[in-house]
Fold these 2 entries.
Entry 1:
Amino acid sequence: MDSSEQITLDEVIYSAMNILEEDETKYFKYFQISLEVLRDFKMHHMKGINHAELEMDSRNRLSLPSDCIRIVTIGLPYLGRVWTFTIDDELLRNTTIKGGIEIRDATKGEIDVVNDDITGYDTAGGVNDWYYTIDYNARTIIISGKTISEPVTIHYISSGISLDSVTYVPASALLALRSAIIFYANVYKTDVIGDQKTRNEKLYKEEIAKYQHFNMPSLTQIRDIYLSTVKQSVKR
Amino acid sequence: MIKKQLIELVGKRLTERYTGSDKNRFTPGVISLTVGRMYNQMITELALKSPNGLDIYTKLFKNIEVAQDTDTSLYYSILPVDISPIIDAKSGVRNILPMTGDLVSFVPITRGQRTIISNSLSSKISKKIAYTVGKNSNNELIVDYLFMTSDNFISLVRMYLVIPFEAYEGTDDIHLPGGQDMKFLEGVVNYMLGTPPKDLKNNNATIKD
């Protein structure tokens, strides 16, 4: 049987600790570094988009998943794809508190954007039924537009860190993650000689480059992207 | 070597070498105390030199209960026996394992680390239980557990402890570092006879032909 492509973050941590001959009293140090490294990898090196279906609350808001670093797509399912909403950072983010409950007060302009424009030949820009803005500080997506009764689909980049269960990472990223952990574990230490730090950094960069190369689009995917941009005529 | 035999062996060697008239000078109690001092010192020196090499000098204690402190809500265990105070995070508590299975891991930390870890992201998602070794208000030796909750609570644990010589039973096997048995025995005997250790330094003395 082949080994799994998913390994736990702990396996990566223990691999790094094993190489450095660290004992278990250092576990939490490496655990913390690994969490920071994983988040960095998710933002800059790893592919993979997470999917979630979120129920909107009475104030037309969605709570961001706890592991969400950045939103890629927000929309509603339509013919097998996601009908995306349009970002509009001018949407009002505030709500009014009445009787201890957060509500939207129409007298203060806290209403849904209703777009009555009709798209015509001379209309500039697109018109959508739904608009959104994201308040990352409040971990909230604010949606404005027509009433939505079904769950909203979001695609997002995850931190990869699971608060509820075991955190898994791709096995193909083991060496890149491990070399990053070793690099960051030593780079600020004063008792590690500069030469060793340079070697760690070199290895870290090499492993990142290898991992990125491994994740490049295949030749077929690149051909499809290219062909999608050119017009083809019927072959007779 | 069995603890009782070790004490008897030292007693026998003392009798052979002692030339004085005070025959009651070396009672088993006095010998045991002296051997204990030497043994504890040897373990401490070994721990400083090679802290990962203490496994063979540990004794397993099973079915140690985990309780919850009503004042702090923290989980803890009272150690069943005195431990050797080794200068690292584990002290004399070298390993803790669940009584059955090994799904939960215990990681030793210092109280200083505890403050840092409690305020970092790792505290929110750690699946491991951290522990510190110390004393409670009744001056009992305890292990405090961090990140143990009602969800991952384990009622019984087993511990590998480094214990002082005095805490061993008379029939317990006492391990001395390999090849150093004689050095250890002679050290105890010489100390009890008042023989000063050999001066092996030349102190820059002139080399004579």
Entry 2:
Amino acid sequence: MTHPAPALSADLCLKCNICTAACPVAAVTDLFPGPKAVGPQAQRFRHPLLPSPDVSVGWCSGCGTCTRVCPHGVAIAEINIQAKARLAQEHRPPLRDHVISRPEWLGIAGSLTAPITNPILRLGPARWALEKVLRIHRHAPMPPFARRTLRARMRQRCVSSPPADVANVVAYYHGCSTNYYEPELGEKAIAVLERLGCSVILPPQRCCGLPLQSNGFFPAARRQASTNIRLLLPYAQAGIPIVGTSTSCTLALKHDYRTILGVEGEAADAVARGTFDIFEFLATRLDAALDGIDFAPIEATALYHPPCQLKSHFMGTPAMRVLRRIPGLKIILSQSECCGIAGTYGLKHEKFAVAQAVGQGLFRQTADSGADLVLSDSETCRWWIEQHAGHTVVHPIELLARSMRLA
Amino acid sequence: MNDLLVVGEGLTGLFAAWLAAKRGAHTTLIAYGRGGLELSSGCLHLASGASPHAEIASARLPHPYALVGTDTVFRALEALTQLLEASGLPYSGRLDANLLLPTAAGATIAPAFAPHSLARSDLANHGPMTMAGLTGFRDFDAALASRRLATRLQRSIATVDLPLPGPAPRRDLYATDLARRFEDPDWCRETCRAWKPLLIGVRKLGLPAVLGLRHHARVLQAIEEALELTAFEIPTLPPCVPGLRLEMVLREACLDAGVDLIEGAKAIGRVDGTGLFARASGVVAMTAGGPQLHNAGAVLLATGDVLHGGLVAQQNGLIRESVFDLPVVHNADRATWTSPRAADPQPYASFGVRVDASMRPLDEGGQPLLPNLYAAGGLLAGARRTEEGSRQGVALSTALRAVEAAIP
């Protein structure tokens, strides 16, 4: 299947402004003209051989809300992410963008040096220096590195090729954050899948490349995409589902590689079709197994914020369907399209205030709702919300694991 | 497994999904983009003419009003207005007479029910009024609106330009931008302070519909108290805030009632079995990764008319329904689909799917195509909804009837 270039969809735009009304960034700053204005509207002024006519698309956070709400099939977010990449080519991006685009390198270095790096990153002066040198906002969330990565903890599950017997086997795409920052989350996800009868393996994998894509480094992002497709294809071809807990990574495998980076072909399609968000997998493939579980009650009120990147899977909120099984748990849905961080957007010194403003509604709803905890499927959202709302924020799989008496 | 799967996120789909979930049905609403409510004034048109009630009661088959009956129209309206009242977005109106409200273009519309803030402009009251433009807000021209309205109504309407406090915006402001600003109590207070000396002697003030989004009632009250006058709103160009408010209330009511909402995915209908045993089994949803199956006990199509994606014209000149490829009542001759003048009633507006009294689509022989497939709203044949002023009445009443048939 070939995906038409997003730019071609610009002509489908009726200028109805449904995207503008939904855009969380345009709602809080007049620096951003809105997704319609910088997307399908500005597209006619962009020429492959001429410089970008306007830089305001740089304020787009890439949350994808516009594409999801468009009733006419305009790939608005995709047009804008590609236009942002053009800007990055034309204006030398700062060193900062190169650094935050490579969570895998940071993770390797950070986990090796965790005993030293973690305390340093908690120091105010260190963060002040980072802000001065790299323009990473001093209050941007920077979680501690794990001393032992998930792969190190799960060495016996790491494989180099698909097993001969593929029955009930699941390949876990943990991504960088679970491997280097939150290995406990990976352990709980694996425990849940195994309790439901799956046999979980860790296939070889690299960073999905989404941060590179978001920061406009398309050639490097395409290399990550091609590598991951090559590494994961044997599992997809063997019919082994590739399941992830990080919604933006799984969205990259499903959609961004093909539609934004243009890495297309049968191999990319096979990996995309074989990739699942963990709750999508539970809700669609393991419903019967879930019926057999005696869930322990959790008497709590949780505010669930489905990340914008999860909603861009176009599959709704499968976690809601599964979490309803937990007795005593009351779930309040977030009324916000986006928490603000949008991957690496909110880390940046110049974007921090806008990202904070985007999240205000969610932070206020968290405070007003009387929720005991917050649930969110994306790591950067969790770190960002936890920092701003002051609540404990966990991946919904962690709550499910608790109710399944696995944590 | 869903009890009911609703396709479409306009007024019909949202209202139907909410009704179904309230009846205890496990409901999923799937939508390829958001519906047209954000482009609408948020008003509820039942029928033009002196008395909507009388018009609805006199509808003849195959009009959807004749299929569902007057009682269903009224019950649907009652259910919606009660929800809106409880959600802080009260509507007013009557069944025996339409309101007469101004538009941003200086024309008039005659809905039966309208958001309280719009309904208060009712032009049937002849008291003096002033229309205000907001400096720098392009989507409402008070001078144009008042001049055209004054000519139409043979009365004089004053205008005033009101400044917006703070630094000049760095781009054109949308109605949604202003609505969000008014929700900031400090900004709203400062604005009222700046306006007060410009409004001496004004008793009734018409403003573009930008007075708050989620907390509209609070904003309206704050403005009226600060300015000591009666304020009403005039709907603007899209994004139109009163329509957006209605959509937000309905979507949140759906989510509160437990509806699973899937946005962004195109749906393709699935049928199991053949002949007498054929049933709608659900839809295939086109997700980011690939197709995903959704099973359902019943499917309700609320995909709208040809302008909203419910009907598609094919290369061969046929018009078909877009999810289940159902037959559509339409003119065979393409040349007769449109009127020569854009402002005239358009023949294509009456094209649609023919249904029985339970809202089940019919085949050419008049038999239900599938026992558990339903259609409602703009997708239906038999109404000239714009011409008749029956758009929202048809949407709400057929949604209610379909849900009652699907979830007995």
